[in-house]
């Protein structure tokens, strides 16, 4: 009798748990609106079924407009990220995530995979001073209005804001908050991409009456 009871209980548990297990394995997808690398992780603002929500995943090379697929995850509330210095009301921590593969259907031609634009391997020959981010902030008053270059990684990227693309760059130099610099460009980039950036130094800039920047690079050109 005890054995039969245990079997019935086990079956009931499996029946109740089955939908949850299926949901855990369900592959979901959405469009990347914004991404930010922080430490070993990538934080992604995703648009899915007309709604927006945040994901946190191991480092993944993405760009706004990419379609990503993911499965499972742990939902966290009031999750604080020290690396981002931000608390998320809700965020889904995922380990199984990938950029969706584009399928080439008959008659459709080559599939279009979101990628950074092809760009020159080096800046044109001109008198452009190569500096680190630490040097930019240290000498910003002397550099105001001048064209400079730096080599750095794209740690945050927001596309098509006020008709331009906004890249946050880091090169491992400087002390927070002066360890990253904003570059505004008409060109596309990918999150995590290492670039040579040439732009005009602007200091003490206010954008939209809400954001102020001690230093940024305007009209930035991007090179490999």
What do you see in this structure?
It is a single chain. The chain has 224 residues and is an alpha+beta fold. It folds into 2 domains: 28-99, OB fold (Dihydrolipoamide Acetyltransferase, E2P); 129-223, Nucleic acid-binding proteins (OB fold (Dihydrolipoamide Acetyltransferase, E2P), Beta Barrel). 15% of the residues lie in helices and 49% in strands. Strands 9-10-11-13-12 form a 5-stranded mixed beta barrel. The model is unreliable at 1-24 and 102-116 (pLDDT under 50).
List the helices and strands and how they pair.
Elements: H1 2-25, E1 27-38, E2 41-48, E3 51-58, E4 67-71, E5 74-81, E6 86-93, E7 96-99, E8 129-130, H2 133-138, H3 140-143, E9 147-161, E10 164-170, E11 180-185, E12 194-207, E13 211-223
Parallel strand pairs: 3-6, 8-9, 11-13
Antiparallel strand pairs: 1-2, 1-4, 1-9, 2-3, 4-7, 5-6, 9-10, 9-12, 10-11, 12-13
Q: What is this entry, summarized?
A:
The chain has three helices and 13 strands, in the order αββββββββααβββββ.
CATH C-level name of the largest domain: Mainly Beta
Number of strands: 13
Mean residue pLDDT: 77
Tell me the number of helical segments per DSSP (H or I, 4 or more residues long).
3
Describe this protein with a few key phrases.
alpha+beta, OB fold (Dihydrolipoamide Acetyltransferase, E2P), 2 domains, five-stranded mixed barrel, 3 helices, 13 strands
């Amino acid at each position: 009798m005890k054995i039969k009871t245990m079997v019935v209980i086990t079956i009931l548990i499996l029946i109740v748990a089955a939908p949850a297990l299926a949901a855990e394995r369900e592959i979901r997808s959405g469009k990347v609106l914004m991404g930010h690398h922080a430490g070993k992780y990538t934080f992604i603002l995703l648009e899915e079924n007309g709604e927006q929500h945040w994901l946190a995943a191991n480092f993944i090379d993405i760009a706004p407009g990419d379609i990503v697929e993911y499965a499972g995850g742990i939902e966290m509330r009031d999750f604080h990220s020290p690396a981002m210095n931000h608390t998320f009301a809700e965020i889904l921590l995922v380990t199984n995530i990938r950029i969706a593969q584009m399928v080439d259907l008959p008659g459709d031609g080559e599939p279009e995979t979101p990628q950074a634009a092809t760009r020159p391997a080096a800046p044109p020959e001109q008198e452009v001073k190569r500096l680190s981010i630490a040097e930019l902030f240290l000498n910003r008053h002397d550099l105001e209005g001048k064209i400079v270059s730096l080599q750095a990684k794209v740690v945050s990227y927001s596309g098509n804001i006020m008709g331009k693309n906004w890249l946050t760059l880091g090169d491992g130099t400087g002390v927070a908050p002066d360890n990253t610099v904003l570059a505004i460009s008409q060109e596309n980039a990918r999150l995590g991409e290492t670039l040579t950036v040439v732009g005009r130094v602007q200091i003490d800039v206010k954008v939209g009456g809400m954001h102020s920047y001690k230093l940024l690079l305007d009209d930035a050109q991007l090179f490999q």
